[in-house]
Design a protein that fits this description.
148 residues; mainly alpha; single chain; 434 Repressor (Amino-terminal Domain); 7 helices
Length: 148
């Protein structure tokens, strides 16, 4: 029964300062007086919703000056895609489904608005059976012999 002494109190853990208290000006100066190492970093655009920030480079690209602009799919290629698709009796949606892309992508390629992507171009070439890259655009796509 000697172990249950009601007069003594045992403190197991003392609570440290909360995050807000530790960041306060008073806490920082007190830590400096004690000679503790402090690490301070300034957060850039903290507390602001800047996930869709328009930077200078983005604005420059949007203006599309002579030296900074994205290459687009040539209209010649768009017409070849359209003709090849229609010869096979496919709609833009059918072609898009066949190559696992969105119909909007096919529309953009046909209208010349898309930025060329070799993966997508290759898929479209195989689906319609016509070359879209290189010097003989519009020619039938020859099946390459498989290596043994």
């Amino acid at each position: 029964m000697a172990e249950s002494d009601w007069d003594t109190v045992t403190v197991l853990r003392k609570k440290g300062p909360t995050a807000a208290q530790a960041k306060s000006k008073q806490a920082i100066t007190a830590a400096q007086r004690r000679g503790e190492d402090l690490e301070t970093t300034k957060k850039w655009s903290a507390g602001q919703n800047k996930q869709h920030l328009v930077t200078k480079n983005t604005a420059k690209l949007d203006r599309e000056t002579e030296e900074l602009h994205h290459e687009r799919v040539p209209l010649e290629v768009g017409k070849v895609i359209q003709q090849g698709r229609q010869e096979k009796g496919m709609t833009q949606k059918d072609l898009a489904t066949k190559i696992n892309e969105k119909p909007q992508i096919i529309s953009d390629y046909e209208s010349g608005k898309a930025i060329p992507n070799n993966q997508v171009m290759g898929k479209i070439e195989r689906a319609i059976g016509l070359k879209l890259r290189g010097k003989d655009i519009g020619q039938p796509l020859e099946a390459k012999p498989k290596k043994k």
